[in-house]
Structure formats: C-alpha cells, structure tokens
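Quick one, probably user error.
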C-alpha cells in the first residue's frame, strides 16, 4: 500500500481526513499509529557506529535478520528435480535461458532425421516393460511389442507412434505427463 500512495510522514498513513485518492484505510485496521513507531524503533539490528554499513540500502537496519534467515533457508531447503520455474512465477520481459514446462506448449510432430534408426515408441516400451514385470513367465509372442517409429515430438523430444491400431501413444503420453 505504501508503494501506491506515497506520504511524507508515516503518521499520515493513519489520518482519516485525507482525500479519497490518498486515503489509506487499511493501516488503522492493522495497528494503531502509536504502536507502529514503537515497533519500528526496536527493529534496529545493526551497530550505528559501524562504517561498513551501506546506509543507502532500504533494509540496512534489519539486514542481519534477513541474512540469518536466508542462510537458514539455504541450509534447510534442498530443491529436488520436481522444482519448476515458469514465466508466470518470475515475470520479466526477456525469456528464461533454461527449458520450461508451459501449459500452452506446442507438441508438434516431426519426422526423425534418419528413418533408418531404430527408434522405439516411448509409450509402447513402457507398456511392454509393465506387462513383462506383471507376467514374468509370459512368452515374448504374448507380450505387446514395442513399436518402431520415426515420429518425434519437437517439444518433449520423445519418439512416439501415431495411428497404431488399438492405441494412440501420442495422446496417452501427453496426457500422462499433463503439460
């Protein structure tokens, strides 16, 4: 709220006789005008006589608290492979330099560069392994065969079969991972 309506003195945020555009009604609802300077006066966590302090920084009085918290967060939190950053989380004008998973991504079909490569469909391979693990005594002729394919998703960079009778691996793969 302070960023939207700038006032010269902090007491002015509690005044109720301001014009409609400069009125800040939320401040008196949170705390009284006398309580704020009392708390603010106790939040000085730096030595005023220290010459190494950058007094132009906005948070220089509470910087030791923030540094301590940041160090503790770095020690406790270990991001895993499930962490994703998206442009909606970090708004900026330029694009991020690493690969992102966006909901509106385009999964276009692309023919593989060399059709002679034995590229197997990712979904058919997973189905084959799943059935083989459940029915480990089944013979190879009874198991679903991994389909050879030359189609590749430009976004996922996975090889998938399209139009195979009885299944649509392209559709199944992209809805399984819910891009």
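Nope, works fine. Designed sequence:
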């Amino acid at each position: 709220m302070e960023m939207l309506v700038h006032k010269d003195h902090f007491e002015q945020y509690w005044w109720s006789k301001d014009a409609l555009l400069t009125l800040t009604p939320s401040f008196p609802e949170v705390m009284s005008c006398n309580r704020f300077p009392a708390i603010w006066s106790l939040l000085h966590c730096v030595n005023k006589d220290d010459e190494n302090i950058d007094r132009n920084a906005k948070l220089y009085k509470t910087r030791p608290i923030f540094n301590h918290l940041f160090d503790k967060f770095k020690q406790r939190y270990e991001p895993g492979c499930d962490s994703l950053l998206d442009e909606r989380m970090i708004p900026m004008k330029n694009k991020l330099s690493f690969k992102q998973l966006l909901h509106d991504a385009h999964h276009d079909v692309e023919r593989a560069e060399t059709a002679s490569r034995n590229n197997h469909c990712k979904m058919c391979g997973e189905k084959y392994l799943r059935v083989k693990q459940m029915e480990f005594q089944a013979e190879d002729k009874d198991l679903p065969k991994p389909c050879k394919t030359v189609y590749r998703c430009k976004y996922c960079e996975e090889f998938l079969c399209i139009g195979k009778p009885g299944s649509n691996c392209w559709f199944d793969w992209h809805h399984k991972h819910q891009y």
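The chain is about 25% helix and 5% strand.
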